[in-house]
Design brief:
It is a single chain. The protein has one domain. Helix content is about 80%, strand content about 0%. It contains seven helices and no strands. α1 packs parallel to α5 and α4 runs antiparallel to α5. The termini are far apart.
Length: about 200
């Protein structure tokens, strides 16, 4: 499938956003789409369609799927991936956009990297803060439910960006608004919790 401007913008935004939630699943799905010819990947991303890359992404996606279901382990995993998801999201979006931008590919690649990194950072911060807040609850169901929501949201939004880009954009705007709200509330909650924990220790 050859990408027009609308599809390109939608897929770029979806890649950045999804990388902040499920990086390895995102890489795997993009690789599958490129390998089977569903999307004509630019040269900079064609390596994702390599069987070796897809196999590695599948193993890591499976590990992430399990780690994300275990309270506290999920937060440790998120903490580690702060240094992986955001630059990887920026690189994926830059690779996608620069490959289709012709003579201005380098300049557009920088712009795409900034936007892709910003989307990945927003999604990652919302995920990490929400899961950290959920881990303060003794019941396991909220944690599991949030994890399963992420498992469904990533392939769902990537498919929507590819199949119905005009429907994708308002849903992405809604998701970003919800995430920004969650970040604010969760950080406020975690800061208040930290103060309560420190207070008896300092008394």
């Amino acid at each position: 499938m050859n990408l027009d401007a609308t599809h390109l913008l939608a897929l770029a935004a979806a890649l950045g956003w999804a990388s902040g939630l499920r990086l390895y699943l995102t890489v795997l799905l993009v690789g599958i789409a490129g390998h089977w010819g569903w999307i004509d990947l630019p040269p900079s991303l064609q390596v994702l369609g390599s069987p070796w890359v897809m196999a590695c992404a599948a193993v890591l996606a499976l590990v992430e799927f399990g780690a994300d279901k275990i309270p506290l382990v999920d937060s440790a995993w998120d903490g580690l991936h702060t240094f992986i998801r955001i630059p990887a999201g920026a690189a994926l979006v830059a690779g996608l956009v620069s490959g289709w931008a012709g003579d201005q590919g380098q300049a557009w690649g920088v712009v795409a990297a900034l936007l892709g990194g910003g989307l990945a950072a927003t999604a990652h911060a919302a995920k990490a803060s929400t899961r950290a807040a959920a881990n303060t609850s003794p019941e396991p169901f909220s944690n599991l439910g949030l994890s399963l929501l992420g498992d469904v949201a990533v392939p769902g939004m990537l498919w929507l960006a590819w199949a119905h880009p005009l429907l994708f954009f308002p849903l992405l705007a809604l998701a970003l608004a919800v995430m920004a709200t969650l970040i604010w509330f969760c950080f406020k909650f975690l800061r208040a919790l930290l103060r309560r924990v420190r207070r008896p220790a300092s008394a």
